[in-house]
Amino acid sequence: MTSLALLCLLYFAVSVLTLTDSLLSSISTAAAPAASKCTLLNSFQPGFVVQGDYVIGGIFPIHFNLKMPDLNGTYRPPPINCNGHRIDPRAFRWAQSMRLAVEEINQNPVLLQNHTLGYKIFDSCGYPLTGQRAVLSMLNGVSEENSSMCTNASSLLAVIGASGSSQSIVVSKILQTFRIPMISYASTCACLSDRQKYPTFFRVIPSDDYQVKAIAQLLVHFNWIWVGLLRGDNDYGRFAAKGLLRELQDTKVCVAYQEIIPLLYTRQAGLRIMKVMRNSTAKVVLVFATQGEMTPFLRDYMTQNITGIQWVAISALVKASVFSGREYYPYLGGTIGFSNRNGHISRLGDFLQTVNPKTYPDNELVHELWESLYGCSPFPSSVTQMPPCSGQESLLEQHSAYMNTSSPRVAYNVYKAVYAIAHSLHNLLLCQPGRGPFQDNSCAQSNNIQPWQLQHYLQEVNFHIAGEEVAFDAKGDSVPYFDIINWQRGTKGNIAFVSVGLFDGTKAIGEELLIQEDRIMWAGHQSEVPVSVCSASCLPGSRKAVRRGEPICCFDCVPCDSGKISNQTIKSQSKSILIIVVEK
């Protein structure tokens, strides 16, 4: 089966294409080729498009909390629509980082000489099904509506994305059919390192295998041996939780409970989870969930006035500026977690200033960004019901969710991913005939580059950007390096993300973690390390008696046996404790 025919089948499978009556007849009589009858049921438009010699795609969760259409099968389902839902200025900035990188590369006199990059950037709404629709639209050329369906090979060479691991799993499954490589800037699920299942997947963010290793070391370091676990209902949450439990097997850390935030969140489900948290003696709670999953949960959590929880967050959440408002500090202040390495993009701030409704009068995403930032509409209507504004307002400090470029992390990952493709493509174009890596020492044809040929060079690429080495191992993973971030009270009462240490996966075992404890502010604005145990320490003269059917972290203190005494406090810690027993 050819890739073109398979693309038609993929469209059919996700209800994107429909079959005409004549095609149904031709299927039964084998009279007409199916490829000539592919028709679009609806169109899915990119947010930004630029023409170029070589086209790459971008997938970003510019909206989140997508409301899925009713698919009861009794009528034609409406098209998936991201518009009208909450826009994420941070993800919008990620998309602009991709645009800036392409612009820089096209202006670079050395990189990709006499060739240019083009792109199609789509909004995934932070949902796998929409990401699936986006990548299918990418495969149909620059203009999906005007393309000759299922008759020409796609010009797409690579994809930047997706964000969440569940989205990347879906997108990768489609792209690998056409041997098109993708580089994720935020998907960390360890499952994506499986080259058998995801042969074209790369990432510029460390795998969760390294992150859960770092979290396990953090728990042991602070003697947190009784912890709760909160995760999303998706592959990312499942694999992360599984990996953490595996890492904790050789420690004395116990998991008190594991609760799941449902994919379709309800207040009832949230309150049930909060009841478990409130009743548990575990004061440290690990979170393996994304910003979109935590947003409705935290909205209900704050109404319950639950405090005293020491949150430990993963990279997908620990720098979520949407939770940096002063109203969040009483509930989330003191959070600690691991974030991917920050970088520097010198022109990003100036570039963001050029994106406004006046410059892009026909771009709905830019209009929505303005409505989100200013609460006004440059093109007011009865639908928006917002006061009018010029569309040329100055972007100020209070718009930090969009304008914070002092220490970009995910945006920097996007930037690196684009440059990785550019350097790989550049190396491909430098190939000398007779010395190439392909059959009979051949090179790729510059006017007919195949995505799998680009992947060969992507696997071997090695370059430096902003003083950092960028390369991929055999699994498509990058160097494991994390900053340790602590949520502290800022000067205006908001939450500031403060770096208090690092995890360097290149160091020897036991030397990866470096923490500046004196700089940490804990939950409740406390300077003392929180205690999270199932059972209090046993006093001298008593001993531990493990409770039947419960984890080893839970025990009772009973008097020492007759004729024996203990003259030390038996602490419920993960460190080894010497107990002196004296015979009378």
TrEMBL record:
GO molecular function, one term: G protein-coupled receptor activity
Keyword Hydrolase recorded: no
GO CC annotation terms, alphabetical: plasma membrane
CDD domains found in the cross-reference section: PBP1_CaSR
Main location: membrane
Domain Receptor ligand binding region: 94-489
Location relative to the cell: Cell membrane
Claim: Membrane is one of the keywords in the record: yes
Domain GPCR family 3 nine cysteines: 529-570
UniProt-recorded name of the protein: Extracellular calcium-sensing receptor-like
Lineage: Eukaryota, Metazoa, Chordata, Craniata, Vertebrata
